[in-house]
Write a structure and sequence with these properties.
Blueprint: H1 3-8, H2 13-64, H3 75-83, E1 117-120, E2 137-140, E3 146-148, H4 157-171
Length: about 170
């Protein structure tokens, strides 16, 4: 085989350089979009978990007249009262007419992957949901406040809906 026939089947350096440059440009534009989508998905998941859990806490309070594990710092008591049938006074009993409010485990916080709940008697303080520590969630057994342990708190549903509507309108 001649020298000319061998080089005709190969890519030139310039052609390879163009392909590599195009791949780099594509990668630089697509990777941030996937990263932002992942963050958006985590925010949506945590907002949904918060909403669901807060509704169950409100239902418990409406049926019992007090918050679960009221005045204590017991995660075990909170989970037991939410996962079991209870009497009108909140005592766990298999023949209780209320509950269960939580089926299965508490969902893991998508940001630190922990499903542990810091239960605090009294109001929550900012350092108790600052994204640090082993807890995925923080709950005040006195006020019923339930928060995700994450530095940035997720936006309220109305703000999220407004943002989605604005981004749809901008695309049109």
């Amino acid at each position: 085989m001649t020298q000319r026939a061998r080089t005709a089947n190969r890519f030139s350096f310039l052609e390879l350089l163009i392909v590599v440059t195009l791949l780099a440009v594509l990668g630089a534009t697509l990777v941030p979009q996937f990263t932002a989508a992942h963050e958006d998905a985590r925010q949506a998941a945590v907002s949904e978990d918060l909403d669901r859990f807060r509704r169950q806490l409100d239902l418990y309070r409406n049926q019992h007249g007090h918050w679960p594990a009221e005045g204590t710092n017991s995660e075990a008591q909170l989970i037991k009262q939410l996962r079991s049938r209870t009497t009108s006074t909140g005592i766990v009993h298999e023949d209780g007419k209320y509950g269960p409010y939580l089926i299965g485990e508490i969902p893991a916080n998508p940001f630190n992957h922990s499903n542990k709940v810091l239960v605090v008697p009294g109001p929550l303080k900012p350092h108790q949901f600052d994204g640090q520590g082993v807890y995925g969630w923080a709950y005040s057994s006195t006020t019923g406040e339930f928060r995700v342990n994450w530095l940035k708190q997720p936006p309220q549903r109305e703000a999220m809906a407004r943002t989605q509507t604005q981004s749809r309108a901008a695309r049109l």
